[in-house]
Amino acid sequence: MSTDNIVHIAVDSFPLSDGTWIDILSALLVPLIAILSAYIAYQQYRINLQRLRHETYERRLSIYRCVQVYLSEILKNSETTETKALKFYSDVAEVGFLFDNSIQNKIDEIYKKSIKMISLSKKLYHEDGSVGLPIGDERDNIAKEEDELLAWHIEQLTEIRALFGKKLGVCYIKEE
Predict the structure, then answer these.
(1) Is 91 exposed, middle or buried (0-12, 13-18, 19+ CB in 10 A)?
(2) How confident is the model at residue 57 (pLDDT cuts 50, 70, 90)?
(3) How far apart are CA 147 and CA 152, in angstroms?
(4) Which of 73, 95, 92, 100 shows the shortest CA–CA distance to 84?
(5) What is the rounded distance in angstroms from the CA atom of residue 166 to the CA atom of residue 168?
(6) Of 70, 77, 129, 134, which is least packed with CB atoms within 10 Å of its CB?
(7) How many CB atoms lie within 10 A of CB 116?
(8) From CA 157, how far away is CA 142, in angstroms rounded?
(9) Is the pLDDT of residue 92 over 80?
(10) DSSP letter string, 19-60
(11) What DSSP string runs through 96-138?
């Protein structure tokens, strides 16, 4: 057998067309492009969520500060007024657009309990500061309920820190 015959046999053993390899690679290229496109789209989605969270952080933080200041004033004065409660509720009006329902519900609860505390205070004291009408056990019960509401408002100072900390994406470690 001559060298020409060996080369001729080797050349003849290859397929006549290179199209089979090209067809296989072409078929694999389409799913690969689809997978890469899906991965890029997912990464863009995550980046957009992070950007939105970053862009709304200051507005969310300002709502937390409003709640903190309002509750601190209640702690400082042991009371609140209708004007302060309405201003507080007005200052945090956009909470429903920036947070989920848990924060909205907490703010609604603070506002409602503040109004209840104001109502009880009006039963105990007149506008000029003099003692109100109820006397005896009825007055004691109203005063006790008002004190419980005041204590509840004070407790909210620590609770909102943890609640807002989760929603703002800030780590909050409760001190022991």
Answers:
(1) middle
(2) confident
(3) 9
(4) 73
(5) 6
(6) 129
(7) 14
(8) 24
(9) yes
(10) HHHHHHHHHHHHHHHHHHHHHHHHHHHHHHHHHHHHHHHHHH
(11) HHHS-HHHHHHHHHHHHHHHHHHHHHHHHB-TTS-B-S--THH
